Amino acid sequence: MMSRIAFVLAAVFAAGVSVADDKDAGKKDVDKLQGTWTFVSMERNGQAVPMGDAAPTITFDGDKFTVKAGDQVLQAGTQTLDSSKKPHTVDAKVSEGEGKGTTMLGIFELDGDMLKACFDTQGKKRPTEFKTAEGSDLMLVVMKRKK
Q1: Which domain holds residue 73?
Q2: pLDDT on residue 25
């Protein structure tokens, strides 16, 4: 289950970032993502996902992201953000770990030190809102910037 969480996380904000269309807004979002974020909550198919004793983290470094549980890398890759769309979109290309070789389609919202993202775990159809439902194959994560 932890690897599935990492897979979604990486997809969520795989912080390898290329910016489409609105380059200034996208660049600002990329800059705001830099650093390490801790998962606060996760939901998949309408159900809460327990995170265990140690919540996973995701670190954004330029256009790269790494999801870890402790010292173990669960997933890594790059992402493309498009801040000109409402909601903002993210395409996360997974190059390491669960889902290697896939592109997760998602949406995100950044509010200060809080980051919310919703992804299609199968990479078939981009979500249009921040919620999941039974059988949707969507994952919703909320993260907080690590101080």
Answers
A1: 2-145
A2: 55
Q: How far apart are the first and last CA of the chain?
A: 26
Contact 61, 34 (CB under 8 A): yes
Rounded Cα–Cα distance for residues 21 and 9 (Å): 24
Residue 94 three-state SS? strand
In angstroms, the CA 110 to CA 29 distance is 8
- Model confidence pLDDT, tens digit, residues 85-142: 999 999 999 999 988 999 999 999 999 999 999 999 788 999 999 999 999 989 999 9
Can you list the pairs that 24-33 forms with residues at least 24 positions away whose Cβ atoms lie under 8 Å? 25/83, 25/84, 26/81, 26/82, 26/83, 26/84, 28/83, 29/81, 29/83, 29/88, 29/110, 30/63, 30/81, 32/110, 33/60, 33/110, 33/115
In 3-state terms, what secondary structure has residue 20?
Answer: coil
Q: CATH number, domain at 13?
A: 2.40.128
What is the Cα–Cα distance from 137 to 139, expressed in whole angstroms?
Answer: 7
Which position has the token pair 């705001």? Answer: 32
Lookup: tokens for 114: 């809080």
Which range has the worst mean pLDDT, 15-24, 62-71, 98-107, 109-118? 15-24
